[in-house]
Specification:
single chain, mainly alpha, 0% strand, elongated
Length: 120
Amino acid sequence: MSDVGKQNHAVRAGRSAVSAVQFSQSLTAAIDAWAEAHQVSRGDAIRLLVELGLKIAPVPDSRRTVQQDSIEIEGEAVSRISALLDPALPPEERERRIRRLIEGPPEFAEQRVDLPKHEK
């Protein structure tokens, strides 16, 4: 495959990249208003706004999977339910109640979209 037409977007240390970005008229007007309020140029306003946005928004970890997220959510639910249960309950009863709340009643198992469907 040819490298023609491909651009390397990496910036070498000590150099500034120049980027051309197309904005709608309303977004450009909002950027210009922000730039004027902060007494900076449009280019500096765009750079500052992008830096602010990157500081606020976490970078998504593409290695995370839905399964990892669901395991974390279930773990959090189990710990919160455990904190609400009577500590005097036997461990087997505590586990049964936690599972019942996490998995739901068996009569609704067919409606669960997160569980594999069993062949009949």
